[in-house]
Amino acid sequence: MVKVGIVGISGFSGKVLLDILLRHSQVRVTYVAANSTTGRVDEIWPEFLGRTSLVCHKYDQAQAVEACDLVFLALPHMESMKVAGALVKAGKKVVDLSADYRLKRSSLYKKWYHGEHKDPKNLRKAVYGLPEMFRAKVKKAQLLSNPGCYPTAALLGLAPLMALHSGDVASVVIDAKSGASGAGKKVTEALMYCGVNENFKAYKVLQHQHTPEIEQYLSIMAERPVVIAFVPHLLPIDSGILETIYVGMKENVSLSALHQLYRKFYKTEPFVRVLGPGVQPEIRHVVRTNFCDIGLAVSEDKRMLVVTSAIDNLVKGASGQAVQNMNIMCGFSETEGLL
Amino acid sequence: MVKVGIVGISGFSGKVLLDILLRHSQVRVTYVAANSTTGRVDEIWPEFLGRTSLVCHKYDQAQAVEACDLVFLALPHMESMKVAGALVKAGKKVVDLSADYRLKRSSLYKKWYHGEHKDPKNLRKAVYGLPEMFRAKVKKAQLLSNPGCYPTAALLGLAPLMALHSGDVASVVIDAKSGASGAGKKVTEALMYCGVNENFKAYKVLQHQHTPEIEQYLSIMAERPVVIAFVPHLLPIDSGILETIYVGMKENVSLSALHQLYRKFYKTEPFVRVLGPGVQPEIRHVVRTNFCDIGLAVSEDKRMLVVTSAIDNLVKGASGQAVQNMNIMCGFSETEGLL
Amino acid sequence: MVKVGIVGISGFSGKVLLDILLRHSQVRVTYVAANSTTGRVDEIWPEFLGRTSLVCHKYDQAQAVEACDLVFLALPHMESMKVAGALVKAGKKVVDLSADYRLKRSSLYKKWYHGEHKDPKNLRKAVYGLPEMFRAKVKKAQLLSNPGCYPTAALLGLAPLMALHSGDVASVVIDAKSGASGAGKKVTEALMYCGVNENFKAYKVLQHQHTPEIEQYLSIMAERPVVIAFVPHLLPIDSGILETIYVGMKENVSLSALHQLYRKFYKTEPFVRVLGPGVQPEIRHVVRTNFCDIGLAVSEDKRMLVVTSAIDNLVKGASGQAVQNMNIMCGFSETEGLL
Amino acid sequence: MVKVGIVGISGFSGKVLLDILLRHSQVRVTYVAANSTTGRVDEIWPEFLGRTSLVCHKYDQAQAVEACDLVFLALPHMESMKVAGALVKAGKKVVDLSADYRLKRSSLYKKWYHGEHKDPKNLRKAVYGLPEMFRAKVKKAQLLSNPGCYPTAALLGLAPLMALHSGDVASVVIDAKSGASGAGKKVTEALMYCGVNENFKAYKVLQHQHTPEIEQYLSIMAERPVVIAFVPHLLPIDSGILETIYVGMKENVSLSALHQLYRKFYKTEPFVRVLGPGVQPEIRHVVRTNFCDIGLAVSEDKRMLVVTSAIDNLVKGASGQAVQNMNIMCGFSETEGLL
User: Fold this and answer.
1) Three-class DSSP category at B202
2) What is the CATH number of the domain that holds A287?
């Protein structure tokens, strides 16, 4: 059994991680910690009563090193970078769920996360854990940077096109909608029940910090700079993301060719489901699973492609994908604990 | 007091119409009818208990003519056209909430509504009741075609730009989200609680019947053919529409100039609220009102404009706008019953 | 026009009050204030944009006295009592929506509201504003204590029985369910979207502060001490209360006799709707109205009566009833602004 | 591997059964059927895409007998009794999720389920599968009658009291609230999104068919006839039941003694969690689990006990408990597939 730790158990990602890991047949959770919360995990999250007797400690590096072979960091942005380096140095495998090792250029952190990057050395070494694109690198990673929720849905929705036909792409608009758990457990007026229920709104219009992450990996796939328009919205549901992606094409595109392209691209992927022509993904079908469902449509004039991509923001968009990455890094079956 | 009738009381639009008209100081509801439902209105809609003793009859033209000066038709598409002509001939004012008189070319009905238009003569005479664009014509209308819900939000969101700067517009993508009441009272599996709650999905992707209505009036404003990409989605809320409109620009655009343009365009409009730069509309702020709230944003490279437009689909998107049109047609204060 | 003020505009009751009063034909809102929030009302509550240009001030007694004939206090419990006395002394009519003048004995405030009552003199003078029971007193009231939301539904559900047949009543259990707006605008973890949505729970079991208020007025109606078991629950909806009241009877009771009793008792009441035998109230039918809907059922052995009572906690349970009381106090039509 | 079949895959219970059984390490699902729906399971329920290639057939007894060692019947009431007998005769183990074998007296089916019982012989043999009460009998059962959702929460909430102190119990009122999935997949106007969302109501007041089931097993535990008042309500959530149970006591009761009693009674139960004094169960903590959470409170005068009991109606209230029973019947670990 591999000994794993979770740092950041008091957040939603930490909770979902623990839920998955308790069912995982090849790991044992030996350490849980948080920045400010301490105490029995089944008091922090009463849903775990009867499932675990784990106790959450204030994070202590020596304890983490002592107790774990692999550590999940489910910390807020700009916090993981204070912790990851030492664990890497101690030879531990690290799966970081924050944004801290996702952007290649440290200067981008100043612009999008409003702070100086504290660990540029490891930033260069970190592997971006989208297995469908970078599985070979994930296998050998020591420091794994787990993708953001919006980027996961966007990149999986666009990968076949960008990897194989990027020259035909003229423009990309991503209209993204996420459930409220995407905002984390921050206690703010905007996230009170009576502010989210029976409501819907856009936020951080054209200014969301996931924009550069999406652009960076689309550009890598396309092997040329790709610019997107990205607008996220807040859905009155707990969990789930649906992104509606409008791709303006330079050449005519046919739905059946496109469908074939996507099916082939994802043929062996256990967690990507390309739906038949005319079928649209629904958040309800992916929530609490590690699947990404993809739908395709083409305009009458064949110059506009609409890709719809649905995931659970806390599973394929965070903790499920983190476990998928761990499975690859540790040589387990990639679907262990996730089906 | 003007005597008004509601045909189609058993649908959501009919219900909201009655709710507004019962508070209106210058009309009296003298006739309510439906196609299949009959009986006391407060049994069809228990919320009206103690507010009205009206009884719903099976629609009868002679009764309608006898009882009403003005008739609201809140019937399904392809049904109003069987009824409106006779009322017009009898000299009655008619406000039709269906799509039956919205498209200029009767041939479009075959494509988008799957039927032959039965009343092409009146189709030519009907006035499209978006007061912010066509108030002068509405004043003199006898047969008023009330705009669709999605078109109302889209056209108000784009009118200033299309009327005054359409030459700069390169592309228009409309990502629309609507609450479940937009689908009407049809009893279908897809609209059951457990199919809508905690869910979100796109539907009729690039194939929704409101597309030609939006294109027709954008083209009139722009004085050139305008083509859009339009994708609607189903929100897990009762009522409300938010549309996120991505406008690709041929020239650089500045947010402050745009904001000024919109503010000036709508300066005297009682029901359009242009929000300040950086402020986004929320469905919660317009629901159960006749307001349309508009937000504006511009991309860093100044070539992409994002307009967000929010209405209540049953009020400004249907019954409220119908009453606004009646107010104009009858010479009442335009806001009577609506503030 | 009577000049009215609202103190506590930043809370939900204050907002709903303003919404009703802006449509009221015989008053003008001349003053709005709050304890901590200041600024344009349409910035505090964007839904009012285009409906009012009122500005919210930090509460100032001299200003309130100067500007208003009647003042609504929509303040937190234990705050109204600091303000009401001076307004009464200045000859103003006061409608207090807090609990501060509801309990007859000041000692009860220590137990249930954890503080010393600051204004026992006016506590004795205050009139409890449940018009269906105390209309004659309300007419002459200067200081009106507006009932709590749970008590309104409970007292209206039990009044006919308690006023006319209290001798037959053996036991009263009140199982109450309320939407999230009942908790006010407190920003707490328990009221975050992800804690209320898709959830349901009891709270303050047998310990809610509305218990003594309900018992006090049931006892007045019954002319003997009445003790209840009261358990409130939190519903995942914005607004609305449904109470299911189980009355154990000493004598057999018949549904038809009971139904007649209730119908007769409320015959002339504009806001109480006694539903037919077999019909159950639904929150949806009363929400955003000042109605209280009542359903009745009797057990097979005729010894248990189940009364179901539904209101909107913010309307009949707070601001709507406050306006109803103002209408009576000022000699307006009792339903003005409320139908 | 034990070969199991699911008859009634098109309903919610069937779906949840399959979800659990696909993760179960000791069974293989070899047969799925339904009454009217046929085709690939991942088309009936798109959430199963990529998880199973099972095909649903119209139910055929010979096929079921051929393919399965144990059959789950997730059929509507009055349908299971047409099918179960033959499977039992063929020597198969049967777990029936309908009500068809729950009531001891076949005459009760006429009153509560409006039909003649077709299989009274097996009715006598069937074992009621509430493991916490009848584990020894479950072990040897061939025909297992899985408890109803409301009865499960009620019986677990009352078992310690009824088994050990029934003499002190004077009255039992059960106020029950269930999510919409409890009504099954019927396509009716009452279950449409806009009829359930933002709504709440009681239904079948004092007339719900689970009443005799609860009374029958309370009476068995108490060893005397127990009569209850039972009122169910419809919650605007997908899944989950909370019951608030008011027990009038003939003798004083202390919260700490009661708490001890419950803790001791359920000490070795893997799926019943007795919460600490002052802690209330929440639907959110049990949803999608097989747990039943129980909270306790006592009135000031010590004569009223309030038990709150929460389960997921589709898991512990249906399919989870069915698997728990199968585990016991087959000698598997009781928690296999369920933690």
Assistant:
1) strand
2) 3.30.360.10
Q: What is the CATH number of the domain that holds D90?
A: 3.40.50.720
Task: Give the pTM.
Answer: 0.98
- Please give the residue range of the domain that contains residue A304: 150-313
> Structural domain tally of chain B?
2
Look up residue D42 and give its two tokens.
Answer: 């991942």
**pLDDT tens across C42-92, in order?**
999 999 999 999 999 999 999 999 999 999 999 999 999 999 999 999 999
Q: Give the sheet arrangement for strand B70-73, strand by strand.
A: B39-40, B55-58, B27-34, B2-7, B70-73, B93-96, B143-145, B127-128
| pLDDT (0 to 100) of residue A338 | 98
Task: Assess if residue D6 is contained within a domain.
Answer: yes
DSSP H helices, D142-300, are: 149-165, 193-196, 211-222, 255-265, 283-286
Percent helix, percent strand, percent coil in chain B, to nearest 5 = 40, 25, 40
A330 is catalytic: no
Q: Which residues of D touch C182 (CB under 8 A)?
A: none
The residues of C carrying an active-site annotation are 149
pLDDT digits (tens, 9 = 90+) for D174-229: 999 999 999 998 899 999 999 999 999 999 999 999 999 999 999 999 999 999 99
- In chain D, which stretches have pLDDT less than 70? none
Q: Exposed (0-12), middle (13-18) or buried (19+): which is D252, by Cβ within 10 Å? A: exposed
Same domain, D72 and D220: no
- Rounded to the nearest 5°, which phi and psi values hold at C279? -100, 135
Q: Are C296 and C261 in contact (CB under 8 A)?
A: no
Considering the domain boundaries, does residue B324 fall inside one?
no
Same domain, A169 and A245: yes
Inside any domain, residue A319 = no
Region of B293 on the Ramachandran plot (φ > 0 left; ψ -120 to 50 alpha; else beta): beta
- Specify whether C65 is located in the same domain as C187: no
Q: Do C98 and C179 share a structural domain?
A: no
Residue from A24, A44, A51 to probe the interface with D (highest D Cβ count within 10 Å) = A51
B234 neighbors B180 (Cβ within 8 angstroms): yes
Residue A307's closest chain B neighbor by CA?
A: B205
Alpha-carbon distance of C322 to C316, in angstroms, equals 8
Q: What integer pLDDT is reported at residue B36 of this predicted model?
A: 87
Burial of B180 (0-12, 13-18, 19+ CB in 10 A): buried
| Pair of tokens at residue D328 | 């016991």
Is C231 within a domain?
yes
- The letter for the amino acid at B75 is L
Q: Mark whether A154 and A110 lie in a shared domain.
A: no
Per DSSP, the residues of C234-286 read: E-SSSS-EEEEEEEEESS---HHHHHHHHHHHTTT-SSEEEPPTT---BHHHH
Task: List chain B residues with CB under 8 Å of C339.
Answer: 22-23, 51
Our CA-based measurement puts residue B232 at a distance from the nearest CA of chain C, in whole angstroms, of 25
Geometric angle at alpha carbon B250, from B247 and B255, rounded to 5°: 60
How confident is the model over B78-114, as pLDDT tens digits? 999 999 999 999 999 999 999 999 999 999 999 999 9
Q: Tell me the β-bridge partners of D244.
A: D175, D308
**How many angstroms separate the Cα of C199 from the Cα of each of A190, A237, A274, C313, D164?**
19, 12, 33, 19, 32
Shared domain for B104 and B164, answered yes or no, is no
Can you list the positions of beta strands (E) in chain C? 2-7, 27-34, 39-40, 55-58, 70-73, 93-96, 127-128, 143-145, 169-178, 201-202, 229-234, 241-249, 272-274, 292-298, 304-311
Rounded distance between C-alpha atoms, residue D157 and residue C212, angstroms: 28
Whether residues C216 and C99 fall in one domain: no
My answer on whether A63 and A168 are in the same domain is: no
Q: Which residues of chain D have a Cβ shorter than 8 Å from any chain A Cβ?
A: 22-23, 46-47, 49-51, 198, 270-271, 273, 282, 284-286, 288-289, 291, 293, 339
Q: Quote the ipTM score.
A: 0.97
